[in-house]
Amino acid sequence: MADTDEQARRRQAQDGPRSDANEPEQPQEYAQRLRRINAWRAAERVLIRPPMDLSLGERLASLAAGAGSVTDLDRPADIYGDGVVAELEGRIADLLGMEAAAFFPTGTMAQQVALRCWAGRTGNSTVALHPLAHPEVHERGALGAVSGLRTVHPTSEPRLPTAQEIRDFAEPFGTMMLELPLRDAGFVLPTWEELEAVVAAARERDAVVHVDGARLWECAPHFGRELPEIAALADSVYVSFYKTLGGISGAALAGPESLIEEARTWRHRYGGQLFQQFPAALAALIGLEQELPQLPSYVAQAKVVAGALAEGFSAAGVGWFRVHPEPPHTHQFQVWLPYEADVLTEASVRQTEETGVALFRVWHPSASGPPGVSFTEVTVGREGLEWTAGDVRAAVGEFVKRLA
Question: Could you tell me what percentage of the chain is helix, strand and coil, using 3-state DSSP and rounding each to the nearest 5?
Answer without folding.
Answer: 50, 15, 35
